[in-house]
């Protein structure tokens, strides 16, 4: 019988709540020293990724999250058996402990912001055309005209980026006050101004939420997506030095964007 | 089923669209069947050439901005960049590739195209 792994928790005690996982089988903790791997037995490999299976996985992780620090494991992580699991736990014990300590009592929230990129660029172009038009003087030479066109575009793009940076900086000031760690991505697409994840202590989650409500009432034209609380999918860091698993397997264990989050609309939250 | 996590937005369709756009910058699989392998390889090579061309262009713009290029140098750089761009257009035409097919998400540097 293979073991389906949901997450690593900061406890070696048995789980007292009745939690049911994939295939309706009971979820239990396999202890290793002072931590544990939460698993259920699975009769066969998962053939299809279905929404219900992904949500079942996520539901287990979220139930664990209520009582433990959890390192969430990627959907579809199946271990050959108890011996393989314990061997993996031994190899990664220090990494797991470090992460559990760092992520203890913390939750992940996602913030995405869309801005009206075309309108903003249009305004920049308008201002640019009304003002100074770059440093290269236009003359009859084709190559100089080419450079001038490119330079104008470069200046406009640069201002667009700078504007994005300024917006993000202001928003981040509000969120960072209540966050222990953060990961921000600027302009993943021209419209997706900000794609951020924040790690927030449990007792600060209401403050974080209030900061979001405050930001929402800010400049018009921006659209927001708030998600969470999630297990800290984006903040698990494994050292490369760990023995048993190869690097590729590490990413399988703790994938940045889980299919589960994708299904609930919170991928790379 | 989800006991804790919520996703809250007034514009779900727009976010889905943008998230998909951000994820689909690179194809999930390389199309390497016998009929399309030539185009697939050309695409890969042209993406790399385009990346280098864009970097050269950006560097040139920085130097123009800093005022460190003489008139003659601007003339020469302009001619080179223009020829490079024309050659790329020619190659894209030969292999039937559009600009958006040569896009590459460079993370914090933004999109290539």
What does this structure look like?
The complex is a heterodimer of chains A (269) and B (113). Chain A is built from 7 helices and 9 strands. Chain A has 269 residues and is an alpha+beta fold. Chain A folds into 2 domains: 2-104 and 237-263, no CATH class; 108-230, Alpha-Beta Plaits (2-Layer Sandwich). The longest helix of chain A is centred in the middle third of the chain and has 35 residues, at 142-176. Chain B is mainly alpha-helical. Chain B has a domain at 36-109. Chain B has helices at 12-23, 37-66, 71-94, and one strand at residues 6-9. In chain B, helix 2 runs antiparallel to helix 3 (71-94). The radius of gyration of chain B is 20 Å and the shape is flat. The termini of chain B are far apart. At the A-B interface, helix 1, helix 4 and strand 9 of A face strand 1, helix 1, helix 2 and helix 3 of B.
Taken together, the total number of domains of chain A comes to 2
Radius of gyration of chain A: 24 Å
H/E element order of chain A: EEEHEEHEHHEEHEHH
Termini separation of chain B: 41 Å
The count of β-strands of chain B is: 1
Question: What's the topology here?
Answer:
The complex is a heterodimer of chains A (269) and B (113).
Chain A: E1 2-9, E2 28-32, E3 35-42, H1 51-67, E4 70-72, E5 78-79, H2 82-103, E6 106-114, H3 117-130, H4 142-176, E7 179-186, E8 192-201, H5 205-216, E9 223-230, H6 247-253, H7 259-263
Antiparallel strand pairs in A: 1-3, 1-4, 1-5, 2-3, 6-8, 6-9, 7-8
Chain B: E1 6-9, H1 12-23, H2 37-66, H3 71-94
Features:
heterodimer; A: 269 residues; alpha+beta; Alpha-Beta Plaits; five-stranded antiparallel sheet; four-stranded antiparallel sheet; 7 helices; 9 strands; 42% helix; elongated; disordered C terminus; B: 113 residues
